[in-house]
Amino acid sequence: MSFVNRVRAQAKKNMQTIVLPESTEPRTLEAANTVIKEKIANIILIGNPDFIAQYAAEHNLPYLLEAQVIDPLNHPKQEEYAQMIVELRKNKGVDIDAARALIKNPLYLAATIIKAGDADGEVAGAENATQNVLRPGFQLIKTQEGVSIVSGVFIMIMKDKNFGDNGVMLFADCAVNPEPTEDELAEIAVRTAKTAHSLLNMTARIAMLSFSTHGSAKHKLTEKVARATEIVKANHPNIIIDGEMQVDAAIVPEVSAKKSPDSILKGTANTLIFPSLETGNIAYKLVQRFAHAEAYGPILQGLAKPINDLSRGCSVEDIINVIAITAIQAQNAKN
User: Fold this and answer.
1) Distance spanning both ends of the chain, measured CA to CA
2) pTM (two decimals)
């Protein structure tokens, strides 16, 4: 079964409620119609009910009419949600008037709906910048207990099945943290290992990447990655991890045999942790374009409830698949 079919089937087993705040965006509405039709998730649309009904009729999207629609400018829980924002943000000086204004913003309303327990997750980003999608989640949903950093992982499906686990690899952090510290890199690695298990039923084999393999170059940047690797080994001895290492030593057995013959990975890493957001973001886009890999994400790790960002160049199929992934994250959070 393909990755896409697998995640959709898993989402269907226990349907979750996913809120979509970008309900004037054509790809989002088409995706929502398919998600409802295929019973992948229950959908809440934030937008004008008359517009959504008219759009469904004009574009032959009848299942949109089965979605719950919440008008951000007029809905029964406006005051309840505003009071919730005041309580959550009072230490930042947010009063009731400011909260009432925020609740009219679909992205803040979506996060509040999730915080209130009226939805299980959110998908957005088809028409909003990443920072605008994530900010309400950071402020209102916040991180899981014991987690200090939110990071973004991409699920990469390679055409060459010799890489990763039959072509499946994880890349992190490619979305959130520009310059993670050694402790943050270690936590990103641990969270990504957990994502591999919970989302893909895959045991992560993690390579902590740099421009050096086991001290072949000496620099503060390579030493940071090496220290992050040791932190993971010390605190999570069951995680399969090695570093610092160059990417060819991580994913090519013949190169590993020369550069890192004692590596536990043996050139078979399925999870790559990049030393910075710059390197991670560049790498996933290069692999996506040059190797024609499928890239799903960024899937956010560490929030108390799942909120996932989309690329503004996403397709309808991308949105459907990220909704399914978000639903699985919500299932796992409840378990």
Assistant:
1) 24
2) 0.89
